[in-house]
Every structure is written in C-alpha cells, then in structure tokens.
Design goal:
Blueprint lengths: L1 E11 L12 E6 L5 H9 L17 E9 L7 E8 L10 H17 L3 E9 L6 H13 L5 E7 L6 H10 L4 E2 L8 H13 L2
Parallel strand pairs: 2-4, 2-5, 5-6, 6-7
Antiparallel strand pairs: 1-3, 3-4
Amino acid sequence: MRITEATFMQSAQGIEDSPSPDKAEVAFLGRSNVGKSSLLNTLVNRKGLAKSSSTPGKTQLINYFNIKFKTDNEELPHLYARFVDLPGFGYARVSKSLKQEWNRNLTGYLENRQCLQIFVHLIDSRHIGLPIDKNVDEFLKSIKRGDQIIINAFTKIDKLKQNELQKLKRENPDGIFISNLKKRGMLDLQNKITEYLFGN
C-alpha cells in the first residue's frame, strides 16, 4: 500500500470548524522546529504541501490534508484517510491570551475528535527527555481511547552518531526513526499507519 495523492483540505481553529469526521485521522504533533512539516512533505512525496516556517510556532491552525492510498485489492483499489498537521508546542512567539486560546482549541481536538485514530508524536532525536515532550507523552496516554494508538517518531537521526542511534533504538524498541534529509524511516512510518487504519 502506498500514498498516491495528498491534497490540502482546510484549516480550522478548533474542533468546531473542523471538517465532518467521516474519515480516519492521523494527527502529527511535536515541539516547534522538530521537522514536522518536512516529515509530512516527505511522507506524502509532495514538496510544499505542509508549510514550514523559519519562525518557530508560526503555525497556529489545525491543517487537514486528504490522503489517498493505492492498494493491491482489485475490489477496493483505493482507501482514504486524513493527515492532520497540528500547531507546534513551545517557543511560540504569540501573546499570552492567544496562546491560551490556541492551547484550548488544540486540547479540545485531541480529546474530543472521534475520528482521530493515531497520534504521531515527533521527538527530536538529539534532545531526548525534554520536560515538554514528557508532558505531551503523559497527556496523550491519559486521553488515549482504546481504539487509538500513539506512535513516537524520532526525527533528525542523521545528526546522531551511530552509537547514539543504536542506544536510542534500544531504549525505544517501538519507535520509528526518521531522517527527512535521507528519507529514512518513512516507509516504516507509513506501514505502521496503514496497518493500524486498514489492516493487512
């Protein structure tokens, strides 16, 4: 199974103005500057689909993308889902009141979106164990329903020495290890997503 089409659908401030929950959704979230937009663009093989910014925390809206998968099943040749690009947390240069509203909307989406099936938590492999990542991980575990999973995806592994990467893998046996630069780990991430959403 592979992704054959990815298109921007819409942006939303929160769950109230989000699209109809008629497709399974995969939410991508991570600390600002973790490489989320680059990962999304590489994963769907489309440059510039998810907009990255040189200003950390600039993305303040929930962005929805329609994703089309090609299967080997002649009776069901295509399957569909949505990827959801969430605002980066931390470092945002926004006013305190806006940040509070933004956090409220983001939490509302994560807690109450019934079609949300997978949380992909992106973690910078060079900075493991940051309090902000631990807090997000604990929060996701506390709200996760029985029909949801959390995938920890470690980005920028090309910046690690080989022994550092091996240690990271030993300590996180269920993790996915990503290099946008060298396109490593993308197939692993895609397969984990499609196997959970659609089975084999």
